């Protein structure tokens, strides 16, 4: 049953893994814990509705914008509600994230989280573009945070290999767009990925502070069996900018981002000896 076994499509684990839960932790939960309990939070994507489960009650107001009504409805009916304890007190909007923010005229958001692991479609690739980053920046409150996954490992230049199928360049292109759009970008890394928190002012987040906030969160009803014990590393802003130097951000016509990612996944599954 869906209560016992995470769903699989074409061999890809889509829900229930610690890696996905850690994605949610870094892209939406921890940024909102830093912003504070009264934060006005927006999650773009997040069809798993894990953001609703873990953020409702931790923030002042939570709004989730999901483009696929069927995804949100089926997830709620067959995954979240059968798990029990699924909260209310949050708002679901069925819309394209770009369209929604472009027409939004309400109170600015304290945290905007893009809850999409990797840009596997042109629509989601555009949520990783400089144009969308600028739109999100315009909808942030003073001191607000824009949070997004860097879609893989954000490695130093000397670790990049000359491999046409390697996805790590995507991380550098996303980061390049962020540093061109925001004055300050903080990168937090785990063993499985990298995440960027962008802002108008320095966040001043230290590794010790994040570890403490994570421990406090896990001490509640959220056990290590769900999130594991991710080791967090905070890059300096200078190091993040250095690693992105020489890369260009994602533009409106960058269909090749999606194509390269698809080829990389095929290569990794059928040809990569690792």
Description:
By secondary structure, this protein is α/β, with parallel strands linked by helices. The chain is built from 11 helices and 10 strands. An 8-stranded mixed sheet has the order 5-4-3-6-7-9-8-10, with helices on both faces. A two-stranded antiparallel ribbon has the order 1-2. Helix 3 (69-83) links the parallel strand 4 and strand 5 (91-94). Helix 6 crosses helix 7 and helix 7 (168-181) crosses helix 10 (237-244). The chain is globular. It starts with 7 loop residues before the first strand and ends with a helix.
Summarize the main sheet: 8 strands, mixed
What's the total count of β strands? 10
Q: Which descriptor suits the 3D outline?
A: globular
Please give the order of strands in the largest beta sheet. Answer: 5-4-3-6-7-9-8-10
* Low-confidence regions: 1-14
What share of residues is helical? 40-55%
Concise description?
The protein contains 11 helices and 10 strands. It is 42% helix and 19% strand.
